[in-house]
DNA sequence: TATCTGGTAAACAACA
DNA sequence: CTGTTGTTTACCAGAT
């Protein structure tokens, strides 16, 4: 990702939160009314065990914010997704980071840090977070600004160029789609933006990947958003540190939460978007796909040079990254109110009411198939089932109670392998 | 070294 | 007219 992911050594050096975090980790374990023994025996304690003896790794290899995101986005379920600050731990309990004086102190310390440090997330991820944490899963630009400002005070003192970057991302990044505020209203000033469900898994994977960019690049507390993310951080600080497998499990949980019926938007049932279509969720194990969450490859396909994105690899991976499933209905359901939105059958130009038709500047879209003309696989309900089973297996490994049928877990590992093969 | 990716700046148009 | 929003292009830096 971008340069802001891996913090430069000097930045790391100026990160006082590092030591504090370690202290807070111990403090909050107690403060969270969790006996240390329980911390150790918590479902994720296996991860702790794995990293035991490597305190350095514990501090650097773990990104509380990711955990938080994954917690927020995955473990909280519908309530968490709908709540602006869903604080759910692995058991589904909710708790507030501020409940502990010790953790509050940490929080304050990190507030200070967050004021001066750049968030370790790309703009696309920031936008994604903002949108995903909104009750309606869609936000106007202004609210996206607001969310970012609220959670990343860094930007309040940053030059206003970041807003341009946000808009730039919204426009350019195909992960985000513009929907009309009201169906009858022609696009006036300000539209709602939401995450394209097809790219959601890619964004998730980007988050996931950001969790493990480089051996040194995981310490991100200075940019820690003080409010909404802190609770899960508290969770993390309880010692329930996760490793990649656990993140996978958390991601899997998201898949589960994304399954039909799992994701209900209680606050806004009228929202036409269905971000939870399981067929729009695919987390690939292919690291090459990791960057495909972004439209960048598409960007290059459409607005930059055609050299890179038209490569077979990028096309195929894009195809996979988008799940390759029959998302047509999903997308249509999601965008059913967005005038002019077409299914993925459409070519790049066709599907872009968001792009003003009066933009001769836009070069004739190179026939980059992927999102535009991607090869679509048949919808496979059984695949969803397998997906759930695989997720259940992962969760089982992580010690996370899942709602899956336990009897299916026995075969889940095998089936997950099957899935891998299928997606290859 | 080439390419990819993300950040930033800027120009421009449309709209309130 | 001004400010906001949305789109696009260009350039740069870091990572791969």
Automatic annotation (TrEMBL):
InterPro entries: Fork_head_dom, FOXN2/3-like, TF_fork_head_CS_1, TF_fork_head_CS_2, WH-like_DNA-bd_sf, WH_DNA-bd_sf. GO terms for molecular function: cis-regulatory region sequence-specific DNA binding; DNA-binding transcription factor activity. Residues 97-109, 294-317 have a biased composition (Low complexity). Residues 94-115, 260-379 are annotated as: Disordered. Residues 118-205 form the Fork-head domain. Residues 118-205 bind DNA. The keyword Coiled coil does not apply. Keywords: DNA-binding, Nucleus, Transcription, Transcription regulation. GO terms for cellular component: nucleus. This is Fork-head domain-containing protein. It is found in: Nucleus. It comes from the Eukaryota. It comes from Electrophorus electricus. Residues 319-330 have a biased composition (Basic and acidic residues). The keyword Transcription applies.
